[in-house]
Design brief:
Blueprint lengths: L1 H20 L4 H14 L8 H10 L5 E4 L9 E8 L2 E7 L8 H13 L1 E2 L8 E5 L5 E5 L8 H4 L2 H6 L1
Antiparallel strand pairs: 1-2, 2-3, 3-6, 4-5, 5-6
Length: 160
């Protein structure tokens, strides 16, 4: 009897572990979902919240967290954690604070170099600015997953 119980427990363990290593069946649906979301870009509000929602809707396991956007002179900002190795930060420069010296320095650095440092001694982030000049998308390109290709596209820049 003990051998049968041990055998059943071992089989249950093998089955549960094999499920962890099986390819994700959602991968195909995610790419289809990405295409559908990209096609529906016109359904999003063309403001900060719409931009953040668009990025969030492109995947299912994102975590949004508030950041100290005021340190760089932005009106609003969030960090969207994509996985343990990737994030994108979205900064809103659409309001009055965009006229501060710090905000102008950040915006000029992004336009000229495609990079900026949120804090003086911090990591330099790769960034892009939308065509409207209102929103900056930033990410750490030194990490193993560079989100540029999914977020900073011509379509996204043109729409915000």
């Amino acid at each position: 009897m003990k051998k049968i119980i041990a055998l059943i427990a071992a089989m249950a363990l093998v089955l549960s572990l094999s499920a962890c290593f099986m390819p994700n069946a959602n991968n195909n649906s995610e790419s289809t979902s990405d295409q559908a979301n990209a096609a529906d870009i016109t359904s999003y509000d063309k403001d900060f919240d719409g931009l953040v929602k668009y990025i969030n809707d492109r995947g299912s396991n994102y975590e949004k967290m508030d950041i100290y956007y005021d340190l760089i002179g932005a009106d609003n900002g969030v960090r969207i954690v994509l996985n343990k190795n990737a994030f994108v930060e979205v900064y809103d420069f659409s309001g009055a604070s965009a006229n501060t010296a710090k905000a102008k320095d950040i915006l000029n650095a992004v336009r000229e170099n495609g990079k900026f440092k949120p804090i003086e001694d911090g990591t330099e982030l790769t960034a892009a600015i939308t065509d409207s000049g209102k929103y900056v998308l930033a990410w750490d390109a030194s990490r193993s997953f560079d989100y540029t290709g999914k977020v900073v596209t011509d379509e996204l820049k043109e729409n915000w």
